[in-house]
Design goal:
The protein is built from 14 helices and 7 strands. It has 340 residues and is of the alpha/beta class. The chain folds into 2 domains: 81 residues, DNA polymerase, domain 1, CATH 1.10.150; 245 residues, Metal-dependent hydrolases (TIM Barrel), CATH 3.20.20. It has a 7-stranded parallel β-sheet. Helix 3 packs across helix 4. The longest helix is centred in the middle third of the chain and has 18 residues.
Amino acid sequence: MDAVAALNEIAFWLERERAATFKVQAFRKAADIIAGLEPAELKARAEDGRLKRMKGIGDRTYQVIRQAVDGAVPDYLEDLRQRSTGSLAEGGSELLASLRGDLHSHSDWSDGGSPITLMAEAARLLGREYLALTDHSPNLKIANGLTAERLAEQLDVVAGINDETGGNGFTLLAGIEVDILESGELDQTPEMLDRLDIVVASVHSKLRSDRSTMTRRMLAGIRDPHTNVLGHCTGRLVEGSRGTRPQSEFDAKKVFAACAENNVAVEINSRPERQDPPDDLIQLALDAGCLFSINSDAHAPGQLDFLQYGAARAASNSVPAERIITTWPLDKLLEWSGTA
């Protein structure tokens, strides 16, 4: 078995089961270290022990590499495969099978942990027909948000990946998760937003603002003609390493009415720590006639499989598949987003 592929697959399964970041990165780092070695050189270093003395190669990663170069599936990988045979969530399997894509993901260009190519390849292997790359915008400095210049560079990378993978049934969409600023403006130039396939607009700051202030802010972002999807609308955190955070206060009826009126889909964020929107707001959005987008908000390849959680929540709330834009074929999606 290819040792680099084994290390990256281990990292994928660990990400999927929400293992500690340092543990995942140990395998990603080891994969990067050995990627530049010729197979014969790697095998020689594994056999004579030199590999074990390389910085970034620990006991566990050395064992995985050694077993892979000897032609075996590493024991640790086999164990992870066995542990990961079941579903992540109960219910929603029929809806999950109808999902064609994912419109919210991050790479190491902002606060994700992996290169764009790795995110795209993982999405393709999971059977997605499309994935939108939606790194953060410049106001979110803590997440290394992209300036207009960096975003322009990223668009060239996305185009290059699509040129290389053209015809294999997968498309990487150019996108952004753009901040809705306190003024209600979107945190990127209109010229750059015009060049994107998908714009997810989200609030990331001043989440405890009063109800009327937050409502005005969200309505302005929704009414911007560039906005396609309203991301994790309440901003809540219900579990996880970052602790918990209550949901933002806003007039949900007005916000969802604006989404329906402006053809903006409401995101069902699949991250376990978000579960956003809560069920009562999903029902309000349904009543308002909104479209929905089940998205992973993945920051690592293994997290792309979090769509299972979103599908289960959508199914439990009886969201019709035809109102979920990520069940649509790519041509219909791009016609809807105005970029076809």
